[in-house]
Specification:
It contains one helix and 16 strands. It is mainly beta. The radius of gyration is 19 Å and the shape is globular. 32% of the residues are buried.
Length: 211
């Protein structure tokens, strides 16, 4: 199974089941696929990593093959924007890296049975670029995050610069039925004034035992 880098976190996309979540908002649906934005907490401490995610669900009555390949040349996009009392904040993200060999294969798709839901993007946000252009953690306040998952009509057919994409396995058949749309969802959360203290970790390994 190929591991794809989604923004800040490395996530195994194929075969990920839905996880428990706290904050959500109503899902938007296109072509029998709904999309939901999730926050793992309703309130974070100041300086604590903000953990958000996007989930897709098959609302139809037949199996769906959803294109999730995060190689930037494929053309799909996972983005997050956060609005607060002072304006818009953009998570500072490590860009997706292209693979050594470009091709679509079976792991480029998430196979969803009817009524099944699975995660397609994860954002672990430690710093953001604020309205003033400065970087840092989100300040105290209430926020609304919008997560977007975009699959353009040409995604998987040609690269972003117009080159053909090789297909392996069942990828060509999956791609012919894969829905194309822009899904987005919003979720709200708070950042409190209480400072975050990272949990202490026990030292790894062990020295010689005393006798």
């Amino acid at each position: 199974m190929r591991v794809s880098l989604l923004l800040i976190s490395i996530v195994v996309l194929a075969g990920c089941g839905a996880k428990p979540y706290v904050g959500t908002a109503p899902a938007g649906k296109h072509q029998d696929i709904s999309f939901r934005a999730v926050s793992t907490k309703l309130e974070y401490q100041s300086g604590e990593p903000i953990r958000l995610a996007g989930y897709v669900k098959n609302e139809g009555k037949r199996l769906q093959a959803v294109l999730i390949d995060a190689d930037p040349r494929i053309g799909i996009a996972f983005t997050c924007e956060i609005k607060g009392p002072n304006g818009t904040y953009l998570p500072e993200a490590r860009p997706n890296e292209p693979r050594a060999e470009l091709a679509l294969d079976n792991s480029s798709f998430m196979i969803l049975d009817p009524e099944k839901e699975s995660r397609v993007s994860v954002f672990e946000i430690r710093t953001v670029k604020g309205p003033d252009g400065k970087s840092g953690p989100l300040p105290q306040g209430e926020y609304q995050a919008t997560i977007r998952y975009e699959v353009p009509p040409t995604a998987g057919e040609k690269t972003t610069d117009g080159q053909p994409i090789p297909h392996l396995g069942q990828s060509r058949r999956y791609l012919s039925k894969s829905p194309r749309a822009i899904w987005e969802g919003t979720v709200t959360f708070k950042v409190s004034a209480e400072p975050f203290t990272p949990p202490s970790r026990a030292p790894r390994g062990g020295g010689p035992s005393g006798g």
